[in-house]
Structures are given as C-alpha cells and as structure tokens.
Amino acid sequence: MRMRQHAKYSRADRTRPANELLRPGLPHPNGWFCVGFSREWQPGTVRSRPFMDGEVVIYRTRSGLLRATRPYCPHLGTHLGVGGTVDGEYLVCPFHSFAFSPEGPCVRTPYGPPPKASLSLLPVREANGIVWVWNSHDDTPPDWEVPELTTVGRALSYRTADLAGYPQDIAENAVDFGHLPEVHGVSVLETPPKPTSDGPYYHVEGYVGRPVPLLGTIASRTRLHFVGLGGTHLLFEFPQVGVRASAWLLVTPIGPLRIRWWTVVNAAPNDPPRVLMPLHRLLARPLEQALSHAICLWTHKDVERDLVIFNHRQYLPHPRLNSKEGPIGSLRQWARQFYPPTQPS
C-alpha cells in the first residue's frame, strides 16, 4: 500500500526514506513476526514472503500442517516459492521434482535414491489467526510463545504498508503519549498507570479522548499487550457509541532498515437488550464486518501520520527525553532482551 502524504508532512515526498540515507542503527530483533494470516494458506498453498534480509516460503500440507522454510532447494538452489507445489504431505521442488517431508529431509526423487539433503525449516506458529515465524540472531529455538489473546467478534479487516524503520519504532510509538495530541489530536484523559512486564510481554493501559464530527469527544479505554517486538495487541472500549474492538499492530523486518506494517481490526457492537437479541443475531455478522472495515480504515489512515515520520526518522540510541514523555525509557530497557548481548543499550 502506498502511504498518502498528509498536509502537515507534505515536504516528506521530496526526502528519501531513512533506509536510503542511513546505516541501520539496530539489528533485527529476536522473536515471533507476522508473515500473513491463517486464512491465506489453505491446504496445498505455497507462498513466499519477505522476512528479515531475505524471504521465507510458507506452505500447508494436504492434512493441514503449516511449515516455513528458507526458500532455496538444497539440491540445486531453486526457489521453492516460485513454482513449488504440495503433493500430499510433501513440498515438491519445481526444477527436478525432489520431494521433502514436513520434517525437512528429501524423501523422494523421480530418479535415483534421495540425497542426504534437508529443507532449512524455521519455527512457525498460528495464533490469533496470524501466522508467525521465529527469528533468532544465533538460530536458537523459540523460548517463548505467542499467547492467544481476546478477539472481538469474528470479522477481520487489515491494511498494510512497507516503509523504513524498526519494529522497536512501533513499540515505542505506542507508549509515546507526548505525540498523541500533536500528531493525532488525541487528548490523554488520565495519567496512565505504570507499565508492567513479564519476560517477553509488556503491558500498558491508557484512557484517551478523540474529537469525532457530530459526536464530540469520544473517550476510549485502551489496553495494550506487547508480544515481543513483532506485535502489539490492543483492546478498545467505546461505551459512548456501544462498540468494542480488538486490534493488532504487527511489524516485521523485511530488509536492512525496512519493515512491513499491518493494522488488523476486529470490531463488534455491544450486546443489545434481551428483547432485541433475535434481531442482533441476524445482523451481527454484517455489522461486525462493516464496523471492522470502517475502524480499520480509520485507524490506518490515522496511523499513516506516524508511518510518514518513521519512514524518514533516525534511531537515536540516547534520546534526550523529558519527564512527560511516557514510558519510552522503560520500554527500551525491556526491549534489550530481544537483541544480541553485544548490542549497545
């Protein structure tokens, strides 16, 4: 998706993105990162996605097993995402039809015995309808998992954009309360409580108000749950308009100082009085779809203001913060666990 230029940032279109002007200031972090959504992989589907400084091939076997592998066949280097197919439980290379089992080894060829060759599988998970692939700077296996978190309703809507930046930019932005009135016109209605963390998970709450035409200021209590640096889960309550929503802000490195961003929203109306429940059940699905799409579009347009800034921003390892910034320093301390030990704080 192409990012639109907002009037306040109209000169940004004459400035090259940060990845063309700067050297990366952070390495790719360890953790789970989104490559798409479960519904994109029906049995037999093979897809390639950008991932870190290369690509990853994701496929689903006929029985439903999901696998992720580095893209090149160990036989003669063919890209398995370009013409590769699924035959039962096997991933089949398009060049010589060598077949690989879900565990990785080559198990069949159309001529001669299978060579001692294996796919370079990567850990992959499905959680919250999202497909996550594990990244580690030293190839250590996962030592934590993506939890199943609350999803509102059944309809899912999402938008995406590619830009310059780091996953940590997105995490820091979510706790940067100082930018909310300046960039988004949002007022902070209560002093947020102190964030809490539990290993790879970080939790923040906020209570903000946003002016909406014809409705005045709409207050929203938001709970944010960070799942490593790859995803932030949000729960919204809009009691004034009888709507609740859950969302994911997902970010995956796709190259040096380049990221792919997803805005994902599920929304639903609050339950009506009992007398209206039959009508509610009849209209629930189309209402959820309409609300999810509208809130996702609105959220992504609003977030684009941040994305334009990220696309041209330099990461500062020692920013000059004041006492009203929000818990940026706390989040940076928490985020250190996802980088190599030699990475400066």
Automatic annotation (TrEMBL):
GO terms for cellular component: cytoplasm; membrane. Residues 32-133 form the Rieske domain. One of its GO terms (molecular function) is cholesterol 7-desaturase [NAD(P)H] activity. Its cofactor is Fe cation. InterPro entries: Cholesterol_7-desaturase, KshA-like_C, Rieske_2Fe-2S, Rieske_2Fe-2S_sf. It catalyses: cholesterol + NADPH + O2 + H(+) = 7-dehydrocholesterol + NADP(+) + 2 H2O; cholesterol + NADH + O2 + H(+) = 7-dehydrocholesterol + NAD(+) + 2 H2O. PROSITE patterns: RIESKE. GO terms for biological process: cholesterol metabolic process; lipid catabolic process. It is an enzyme of class 1 (oxidoreductase). Gene3D superfamilies: Naphthalene 1,2-dioxygenase Alpha Subunit, Chain A, domain 1, Rieske [2Fe-2S] iron-sulphur domain. It comes from the Bacteria. Residues 1-23 are annotated as: Disordered. The keyword Iron-sulfur applies. Its EC number is 1.14.19.21. It is found in: Membrane. Keywords: 2Fe-2S, Iron, Iron-sulfur, Lipid degradation, Lipid metabolism, Membrane, Metal-binding, Oxidoreductase, Steroid metabolism, Transmembrane, Transmembrane helix. Pathway: Hormone biosynthesis; Steroid hormone biosynthesis; dafachronic acid biosynthesis. Homotrimer. The two-component system 3-ketosteroid-9-alpha-monooxygenase is composed of an oxygenase component KshA and a reductase component KshB. Belongs to the cholesterol 7-desaturase family. This is cholesterol 7-desaturase.
